[in-house]
## 1
Amino acid sequence: MTSKGFSFAIKFQFTGTPGSFEHLLSINPASTTPYFELMRNVTTDILIMGYYNPNQNELADFGSYAQDTTYTVISIYDPTVGAKGTLYQYKNGTLNASFTVTNAALADFTSTNTYIGTAKDGSSALNADIFFAAFYKRVLTASEIASISSVVS
């Protein structure tokens, strides 16, 4: 996939004992970097999205997500906003957080591997129930975000 932006929607509920860096999404090229990951931070209830590139890692804190509560989350990378793109996260249909990418322009980010519920090496499995997951090779519109959030909530 060559990125002109992307969107990832997931309806999930964290269950059981929190694990270390549980992955909801990992988008990786054939090589090791650059890549994106959406995961729960260590054993907390904080959801983070990271962009990793050699010596240029960036992490965006997207707030708390409680155990045993169902959420619909839509994460978006829009390469047209800001000099190097912006990450957005919608929680149950409402913009929860945004983060401006500062280190690397990603308009030509290419990935051949996308993992849901695990890291690229099979580690950090997600301890959650997944009710819905969808990946889009573009930035969703505001009406699409509202529609997805209302239909899967």
## 2
Amino acid sequence: MCYVDLKEVKSMSKYSSGEIAALCNVSVRTVQYYDCQNLLKPSEISEGGRRLYSEEDVKKLRLICMFRSLGLSLSCIKEIVENGNGNEILLTLLEDQEHRLSGEISELQKQKDAVESIKKDIKECGFLTVNSSQDIEPVSYTHLRAHETSAHL
């Protein structure tokens, strides 16, 4: 009698766009977009024209998703994935991303400090004084506007 391990069968199978999207918690449209951007090409195209993805493609999409969660652009991710020695490129890109994030954190900390200062003045004086508002360094409201926009989506 011959027994077949179901896990082994699934690892040899192919995944549709919907299946690979579900496995990686992205939309089918995202998978299709990555195909159009030559970032994640299907291993096969069925006779009916359906994209079919392998286990290696699943791993690649998970890697892409991880890089996206770190804030890397698709062009950077494509460079990493296509390059045979991706670790050096990845380290450089991650250092750049870390530097950019540090700048954003610094800007957000300034905004937070300004908010705390204004709250303190209002609590102590009952209103915002002209002197206190002049003492507060102007801050960029770009991040605040971005958060307001995304909160309404």
## 3
Amino acid sequence: MLHILSLVKRSLSFKKYTIEKVLLMEEKKGKVILIVDDEDQIKEIIKTSLDLLGYRTACADDGVQALEEFKKQKFDLVISDIRMPNMNGLALLKAIKLYSPSTPMIMMSGYVLSPEQKDSLSSQADAYLTKPFSLHSLIKTVQNQLLETSASE
């Protein structure tokens, strides 16, 4: 865990902005993000990065667990892997959009998507990241989705 934390801090400090600059941005305070991935290491890197930037985070291992969490509390954003056991990310995407259409969802995958999956993503997902992605790409995508949501409220 300490190793992951130091890698995240080091990676963030090399980018255009520093953690201190990002923490000064008031709009981040109180934003809650649900991270869904069956790979613990990826989930932990994303969680640690977003926590360091001032977001509040919760994690789930699959779509079933994520849906349970989503029904318990309000999330401002969901970041989900596509390939997971029990309930995959596309099924989770559809369920969350039915339950809360305005909640932005960032989907991610390291696999080549079928044409049907691409169609489903383009019609329902708010953003898509291909693994492996940089922390900079992740943070930019998160910020953009939260800004778009704030602007439309």
## 4
Amino acid sequence: MSGNLPWPKRELKIGDVSKLACLPVKTIRFYCDQKLIQPVGRSESKYRIFDECVIEELALIKTLKVMDFGLVDIKSILESRRSGFCTCSYLKGTIKSKINSVDEKIKELQQVQGQLLSLIGNWRNCGGIKANPEASSVFVEPYTKASPEELLV
């Protein structure tokens, strides 16, 4: 028997984990290779064997990936979680850093949105007639007036 449980922990092959976690086997192998999750051993046939705890860890990985955390951060979060020590300050710092990253992405996307709105606002319908190749294009004109520094923003 294992731990305080009245029954032994169930050992799961990678295919079982795949079904329970709703992830492809290939993804689970990748997470193993990246050291995000670890099998508890191998079967006689050399299949990876996992305990049931891996399902919860895979759920956390999926949640963190949806939140756009990178594998390095996910690995650190999992290691902190497994350590058994409170790492609140580290985790809060990681989350605050992610919030700052999201704020930056929002600003960048708002700039892109502004450029797209400007483009559509300056749109000139051609009426289905092929444009004169010498005439300025709605796509090029705003950028030919900009300095190289403005284009890199």
